[in-house]
Amino acid sequence: MHSEHFTAVVTGAGGTIGTCISSHLAGLGYNLVIIDTHKNNLDALQSKIQREYPERQVLALTVNITSPQEVIQASRVVQNRFYGIDVLINNAGISPKLSNGMRIPALSIDDDEWDLVMETNLKSVFLMCKYFFDVLKRDKGKIVNIASMMGVTGSGVDTNQIFPYSVSAAHYSASKAGVINLTKSLAREFSESNVPVYAIAPGAVSGGMGKFDESFIKNLKEQIPSHQLGTPEEIVNTLNFLLTSGMSLTGQTLHVNHGWFMGG
Hints:
This protein is an alpha/beta fold. The chain has a single domain, classed as NAD(P)-binding Rossmann-like Domain (Rossmann fold), CATH 3.40.50. 42% of the residues lie in helices and 13% in strands. It has helices at residues 16-28, 39-52, 68-82, 111-132, 150-153, 170-190, 214-223, 232-243, and strands spanning 7-11, 31-36, 58-62, 87-90, 142-146, 197-202, 253-256. It is globular, with a radius of gyration of 18 Å. This is SDR family NAD(P)-dependent oxidoreductase. It holds the Pfam family adh_short.
């Protein structure tokens, strides 16, 4: 899939992983639709890609992907511009923390914040898959959802004596569990159209959603067999593998976490 005629849609493109994914796909020859709610981040990414790869088409859309109306409108804009896309990457997500960067206890999660996390991390994936499905090229299109290891293990605890030592809270973990399950459900339904649906579940990623002090990172690394955090580039490497895979892996979640979690 290394051709300038291919097009990818990336949500949450302005974040660390989204930026890495978008830049890498541009390097492979993809035209891009980059979606985020932060216009400044989008503008910077669009300028960067077009400076480095002037032959690429880059469409930047500021979209609230929890809104069906905005997602529908975005799909129309993309269809009119590119006449179909080859890969949809649902990367957008949030993981609220306490003011000191640590995990929010389940009983302290604000009700409205619970709804916001579910809408941003899970509902948005459903809406993008639903309303961009007809934009995907049949027999060629792929969907890749970015989940999380915490969607399998559950939220973390505050001591590295208990696995997993993490600042991810219950609402984040539950939303990512939903992404993993939704991936399976859609994989079964979309197989009739030969559209595979995959998930990538990162563990702790440097430069990701958490801003951690050195003591936290030291304790975290003690739980990880390789004693290393993951990198955005490792997520991209996994994406590369999926871009060359077909229906044989549809519905699967690939865990990328340096052995921190080794379950299926």
